[in-house]
Design brief:
The structure holds 2 protein chains of 2 kinds. Chain A is of the alpha/beta class. Chain A contains 11 helices and 12 strands. Chain A has a domain of 208 residues: Rossmann fold, CATH 3.40.50. Chain A is 29% helix and 18% strand. Chain B has 21 helices and 22 strands. In chain B, helix 9 crosses helix 10. Classes of the chains: A alpha/beta, B alpha/beta.
Amino acid sequence: MEATVSIPKPLTAKDFASDQEVRWCPGCGDYSILKQVQTVMPTLGIPRENFVLISGIGCSSRFPYYMNIYGMHSIHGRATAIASGLKATRPELSVWIVTGDGDSLSIGGNHVIHILRRNFDVNIMLFNNQIYGLTKGQYSPTSEEHKVTKSTPFGSIDHPFNPAALAMGADGSFVARTMDRDPKHLQDMLKRAHAHKGTSFLEIYQNCNIFNDGAFEIYTDKGTKAEETLFMEQGKPLIFGAQKNKGIKIDGLKPVVVSLTDGYSPDDLWVHDEQDFYKAQMLTRFFDDPHGEQHLPRPFGVFYDISRPTYEDVMVQQIIEAKAKKPADLDALLAGKETWTIAE
Amino acid sequence: MNTDSVQQLDDVVIKFAGDSGDGMQLTGSQFTNNTALLGIDLSTFPDFPAEIRAPQGTLPGVSGFQLHFSSNRIYTAGDSCDVLVAMNAAALKTNLKSLKKGGAIIANADGFDVKNLRLANYPEGENPLEDGLLQDYNVHVIDITKMTREVLKDSPLGMKEKDRAKNMFVLGFLYWMYDRDMESTISFLNTKFSKAADILESNLNVLKAGYHFGETTEAFGSRYHISKARMEPGRYRSITGNTALAYGLIAASQQSGLPLFLGSYPITPASDILHELSKHKNFGVRTFQAEDEIAGISSAIGASYGGQMGITTTSGPGMALKSEAMGLAVMLEIPLLIMDIQRGGPSTGLPTKTEQSDLLQAYYGRNGECPMPVVAACTPSDCFNTVFEAFRISVQHMTPVIFLSDGYLANGAEPWHFPNSAELPKIKVNFKPARENEEELFQPYVRDENLVRAWAIPGTKGLEHRIGGLEKQHITGNVSYDPENHQLMVKIRQEKVDKIADDIPLQTIDHGPESGKVLVLGWGSTYGAIKSAVNELLADGFSVAHAHLRYLRPFPKNLGTILKNYEKVLIPEMNNGQLIKIIRDQFLTDATGYNKIMGIPMTKQELVVKIRELL
């Protein structure tokens, strides 16, 4: 009899969609992100049962319900902490975190900086819409100053976080930015986040069309996108503009925009290097108000990608070494070093 | 010359008291180990300030270690002391009230100089050692500092380091006084200072000098000898509550095959559990010092979700921070252990002092209808058995469980007739197996006859599912806002915890008649004091019994019947009356409370007085 080998049929995006009806507001940027995640995950060569998605609270945190993988919709701000415990105990799983600007930078800010420094091999997808959506429109820790919202009728006094710079400050080993309205770039960034071993911090500009519509329009609109965005590519000079005629040059310690039609050539420009900590620090600081004069473009892509040991690998190594050095002996443990015997 | 007569004693309580830098905890624990190795029964009560080094010589800086040892079985660290070692004036002032009339004071002369007297707030010109204020006591003033310096006059150590050895002089002297061999401490010092030859030598020399001082001085006519206690035959060791707790977790991990994950944030008096567990990586123990209390429990939830035993250790304030996450664990219906080593509250309260004031927090301190099983240990070594039970209940009933201990149990030591691993029961774990045929959707909230759902861990083929903190639809686990479903799920979660009563032993009477005049109902660390008091009253012919609860939620099924078998029920607690509220609520028992909220353990004598009022 001939041996039959059953080849499992390759999984598709459909296999990663759950039976639950998606309940985000029509037009929400989350739909695009969901679609890209469902498209990318089947291509990563990981059995579906090894994917786990942990979320906190907020609109974005409903995400796990719509994915046919293991998922936990946890409590506000704690997804990163829960994921840390899961990854520490089950390093073989592919652990993804879905969080928002309020969930990860306000109530859960503490856990985010600590997961970054510890470098668990997980992927954080931070949906940044610069507003609290689920609670119906209060300002968030990424909302711009003076923003008028339900809780700031006279304008917000808070100075906003710059999430990518914060991640660099916490010694994140992978820091990137993308946007909901550029599916191809989003897919590329998801793949890069997955490929990175260590905590991947991926900020995704996501439009909340109900409470903060158009917050990132200047970066996504066809008319302005090319002039206002800078797509970083490893080993390539930083060039942008509709005519690809502008570039970033380092002038001393300061980045400046130069015109390639004005005597500068690509050889004069800053060449992107994802392993250069100082350059990555500077790039994350390209955070100007796009309406200001002489502002720098907003960078998208991978700012920083370096390799350093993950928490769980070192933890497992310590256990392996401890076991080799001293095999587990419960009776020896319970007796300790000093015992005495009471005779019959 | 020394008469060297050795007098037999049954029972002694010594308190070592000094400045927190004087090494009293070390002196006390060394004397404890030496006592334990002789088969003498013992119980200890370390009592130290929250400040690591409060200003030297001041009253808040006093650190004490009380040791009760006896040739009879004993259950407490003793109501009052026979011997008080006072390294300075502040130590004397703070502890004199706990010394029996006629008791011995061993005072370090140097600790009673003008500066120390002033720091201890004695009036100008008054010295208790000289002014006849201690007439009721047997006072021995020894110039410990001076003699320590004399012994070490040729040592290359600096003066400060030399003075640090003076606790060894005290220890050596007491070894002489209680007719001991010093080998246990000599071997301890050899290990501890194996890499510091000068310090090792100075400690050994001062230890021996203390012993020889006792031998050669004429001031102390008599030495004392305490015989072995009549204890159950077997092998013993000395153990503290926090160590027993850590060992109980490791034992349960071994007996279940579930590796341990501890997510914890340091907090007094629970930190020693983190320290202990972090040593045992060879048992596969993973310890994670989290960024805060919330991350501690959250990471433990992540570990339990992944199929290991998630544990978090804390004390009252940390417990409060964990409340929301505990609610999540109740919704997820996964195993999880929350260890609350209680201390004085509210707020930061009395970090190093003992109290039983988190029972209501454990019972009710969460948003929504959020029932969780609660168990409590009653002696240091009982932490082992009780945590083993907590582990079993958590795994077999898929529920977070709260384990209550307190500062007194955590740091107190007693002899432990430790089990052989072969005697320990196995804990069965059922992970939901993988499914090849995925025609039907996996339904995570299908329950068995005990209302327990399956533990379906990530990585298992065919069981992909979503869970979370939102209300679940019965059976499917999908999000549900349906009114009937919510009521049903609240009732199911309650019934699931109630049903654990079918899976725990019936309540027993620890001591005394099955029915009678007074039942003393206790929980937690008051066990020893209640037992001692009830024993004394029973010996005097009174109709009194003692029952002690390990299972606080749910209660054993026969508790209501037991309560009805006595005319009166007394509930002593180190809080303002918490168990008594729950007992009244569940059984309508008109119990009487006895509440001590002083940050110190109950004494036998105060309980005897209180119980007699009811007899």
